[in-house]
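Anyone up for a design puzzle?
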């Protein structure tokens, strides 16, 4: 699917449907973004090995209901758009009109979604890094697709998001803040953090030399 001037916005490779076991699979899905009508494409999402099992094709065709037992994807890579583009709306594309009525007609019922290997790639100038992410979602159900798009947690029994690490630099660049083994679970209403570390970027001597007045230097592990 192209955005404009034959620039690929969505590319899907090797689509396979098996009626025998009601499975639908995609080898690769690539989504690109464009800052404006004249810009080159840049990566937004790459998904490898997406598979839907227990897909009720009759319900989809006859009754416009999306019923799936399991959805899994072997690997997903997300790319952060530049911060300037997130803040500015000057060059945002107008929202496409849903001429088919798809979002307001089709209901959705999915039992289990599993994305065990999600990588998030920050922009080049970002002051943070994110480790490996895993996402599990159970029992998604809504009368219309757009309801899930707007408020996904409200229509899911359980969402669990885990991340191996999040690293951020302090504003002054004196410290690295490191969170390890983060798990957020919506059903238990619980956030677990394995450890929180404040790591100074300079040795005690370098820190003392850098500061123009006496100042505490923190080195913390919780």
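Challenge accepted. My sequence:
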């Amino acid at each position: 699917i192209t955005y404009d001037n034959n620039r690929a916005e969505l590319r899907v490779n090797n689509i396979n449907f098996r009626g025998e076991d009601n499975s639908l699979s995609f080898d690769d899905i690539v989504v690109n973004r464009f800052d404006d009508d004249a810009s080159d494409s840049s990566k937004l999402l790459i998904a490898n090995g997406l598979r839907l099992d227990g897909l009720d094709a009759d319900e989809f065709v006859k009754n416009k209901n999306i019923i799936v037992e399991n959805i899994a994807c072997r690997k997903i890579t997300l790319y952060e758009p530049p911060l300037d583009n997130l803040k500015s709306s000057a060059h945002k594309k107008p929202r496409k009109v849903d001429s088919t009525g798809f979002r307001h007609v089709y209901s959705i019922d999915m039992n289990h979604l599993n994305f065990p290997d999600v990588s998030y790639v920050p922009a080049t100038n970002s002051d943070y890094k994110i480790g490996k992410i895993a996402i599990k979602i159970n029992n998604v159900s809504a009368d219309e697709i757009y309801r899930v798009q707007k408020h996904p947690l409200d229509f899911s029994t359980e969402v669990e998001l885990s991340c191996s690490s999040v690293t951020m630099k302090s504003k002054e660049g004196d410290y690295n803040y490191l969170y390890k083994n983060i798990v957020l679970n919506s059903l238990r209403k619980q956030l677990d953090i394995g450890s929180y570390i404040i790591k100074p970027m300079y040795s005690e001597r370098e820190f003392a030399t850098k500061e123009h007045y006496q100042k505490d230097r923190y080195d913390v592990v919780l």
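A detail worth pointing out: Residues 36 and 94 are 11 Å apart (CA to CA).
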